[in-house]
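REVIEWER CHECKLIST
Item 1: Sequence provided? yes
Item 2: Single chain? yes
Item 3: Sequence as submitted:
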Amino acid sequence: MRARIVPLETLRALNHLDWVDRSRRVFKEGDHVYVPVKDGYPCDAVLPVRIRKGRGYQRLGDGVIFHGRRPTAEEIDDVATREASAFILFIPTHTGDCRVPSYEVLSGTPREVLHRESGILYHLDPTKVMFSQGNREEKRRIASLIRPGERIADMFAGIGYFTLPAATAGGVVHAMEINPDSFFYLEKNIGSNHLGASVHAECGDCRDLLSGIYDRIMMGHFDSGEYLSSALPHTAPGTVIHLHTLSPDEEMVMEIIGAHGYDAEVTVHRVKKYAPQICHCVLDVVLI
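Item 4: Structure as written out by the authors:
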């Protein structure tokens, strides 16, 4: 890693400088803080590739999030030193249909952050709305499947996790979100990414907002199966449905689809491990 050596107290002021490579982590050793440098800019040192051992965490903008079990004092201190973050949160779970975070502030003062992923900007307050970095590859996969001009329904849009990549890929997206806090950031993120002409966003229950026929329907909620019957009247042969679930049940899906007069081809994609013996999966359903 190419790096510049800087005083610890200057880290936050460096965030927006052109030479800082924000795709890599800052490294601290003794009194030295090494900031990654982009190719083409001068550096003070070249460090070997290091594999960090220890508790995993999520970096969102200038904030740090722990998930799973509560971190120890040593783990918190390690990350505080490594990241020089504005705040550190422990978020063990998200609750209800609105996926509201249950959180504990471990240090600093939580605030709205700006997260960049695959060239897309996401504004969010992690104490109010959910953001899962574990879905990054799934967002890219879905975006790669979209044909320009497709009419797409995102029934659980959140702050734009799948809406923004889909619109960036050329889709015309009807984005629906029931949580007012998430909807606020959805609209903000649509504007920040200059996608207003490609996304129509509405706040409310997706079952009441679906309209017309869609080429593709994204159902990014673990209870998506309960909403499938509401989605099917807005489909046609060839419509593709991406149904997220923790319990892939192809037989149940085929039964519901059959009741609406369709046959289907179903493919199961594993997104990530969710818990012991449980995986987050997506059923790709092509209606026939």
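Item 5: Key structural point noted by reviewer: The domain at 133-287 is CATH 3.40.50.150 (Rossmann fold).
Item 6: Recommendation: ____
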